[in-house]
């Protein structure tokens, strides 16, 4: 969360619970182990949540618009999640009929720019799924390096790109958008 004290009031940038990036992100790569995860603070245990709504069969969408950060005057009341902001490119994955397509948040098809990632995602053998994540390049300390990411595309070294998944709104034909984020994250770990 970033605060701006301009004009005598605090403004905060918050992401809604729907899409968050961070310590529980899954890593997809072509035969590589995941880099060290950034350290996260311990959080107090929360009371038990209501049972999750049942997964719903849905018409699988051709396109998917990710939820983006919204500028607000103050953080939301009650419980909310925060997470690490990776310095990379937002990337959506659509898997249908054994075909994997990678899209930027603006809907540009980047499948051809990320052949190794596309191959690794095909290896998951999933159907009718949408993933939401961030592609990054990591520096020697394991931190995201935005310039390194741009260079990887310019130099044709997309094999150096890591894909951190932080949400899966659709999985194997099931609409998971109403399933609590924490449960979708747990499923991503599997």
From TrEMBL:
Under the heading PANTHER family, the entry gives: DNA LIGASE 1, DNA LIGASE 1/3 FAMILY MEMBER
Family listed: Belongs to the ATP-dependent DNA ligase family.
GO molecular function annotation: ATP binding; DNA ligase (ATP) activity
Q: Which terms under GO biological process does the entry name?
A: DNA recombination; DNA repair
Source organism of the structure? Pseudomonas syringae pv. maculicola
Which positions fall inside the ATP-dependent DNA ligase family profile domain? 71-190
| Membrane-traversing stretches | none
Write out the ranges of the annotated region (Disordered).
1-57
Stretches of Basic residues bias are at 8-22, 48-57
Kindly provide the name given to this protein in its UniProt entry. Answer: Putative DNA ligase, ATP-dependent
Q: Which UniProt keywords apply?
A: Ligase
